[in-house]
């Protein structure tokens, strides 16, 4: 096993996910989801959502969708962040042909504020643009102040309110969108 010093000095590498990545993506997603949504503690709806939506099998199924791509960030072979991009998804507030959705941009808490989110977002934008998308949109929980502050600094505009239902409980989300241009 590599020493902690060599891990912290290792370069961050980016790649597209393969079939063998579903397990690590799922567990990292569970960790980030719980870090974000359980600020007031665990509730049954959040626990069930975690075990159902973030199960390795659920990510493996999403990876089989030809419209969905996962971009991974790794350090010394350890997954530390990922972006999930799905093509041909229209945002809830604006009918925009050719839109893609950034379904998730998850960075493990130990690696926040290192530019990983910005780099993954740039790569997701470039990939969406290369696949013909003219817009990229996403939703973020209204209580996620860090995400709500981050996206406008990257050129995204808040286009409205929506909700995300977790096991019958509605959570207010903000919708952000950005027009993509060739050459991103």
UniProtKB/TrEMBL annotation:
Give start-end of the signal peptide. none
Pfam families from the UniProt entry: Acetyltransf_1 (PF00583)
Name any GO cellular component annotation: ribosome
Chain ranges of the N-acetyltransferase domain: 25-178
List GO molecular-function terms, semicolon-separated. Answer: acyltransferase activity, transferring groups other than amino-acyl groups
Tell me which UniProt keywords the record has, alphabetically.
Answer: Acyltransferase, Ribonucleoprotein, Ribosomal protein, Transferase
Q: Which domain of life is it from?
A: Bacteria
**Which protein are we looking at?**
Ribosomal protein S18 acetylase RimI-like enzyme
Originating species: Roseateles toxinivorans
């Amino acid at each position: 096993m590599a020493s902690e010093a060599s891990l912290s000095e290792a370069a961050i590498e980016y790649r597209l996910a393969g079939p063998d990545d579903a397990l690590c993506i799922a567990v990292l997603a569970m960790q980030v989801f719980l870090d974000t949504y359980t600020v007031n503690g665990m509730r049954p709806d959040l626990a069930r959502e975690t075990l159902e939506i973030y199960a390795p099998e659920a990510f493996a199924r999403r990876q089989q969708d030809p419209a969905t791509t996962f971009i991974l960030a790794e350090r010394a072979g350890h997954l530390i962040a990922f972006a999930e991009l799905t093509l041909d998804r229209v945002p809830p507030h604006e009918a925009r042909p050719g839109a893609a959705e950034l379904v998730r941009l998850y960075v493990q808490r130990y690696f926040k504020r290192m530019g990983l989110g910005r780099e993954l977002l740039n790569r997701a934008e470039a990939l969406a643009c290369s696949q013909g998308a003219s817009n990229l949109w996403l939703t973020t929980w209204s209580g996620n102040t860090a995400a709500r502050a981050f996206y406008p600094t990257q050129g995204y505009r808040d286009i409205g309110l929506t909700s995300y239902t977790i096991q019958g409980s509605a959570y207010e989300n903000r919708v952000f969108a950005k027009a993509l241009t060739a050459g991103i």
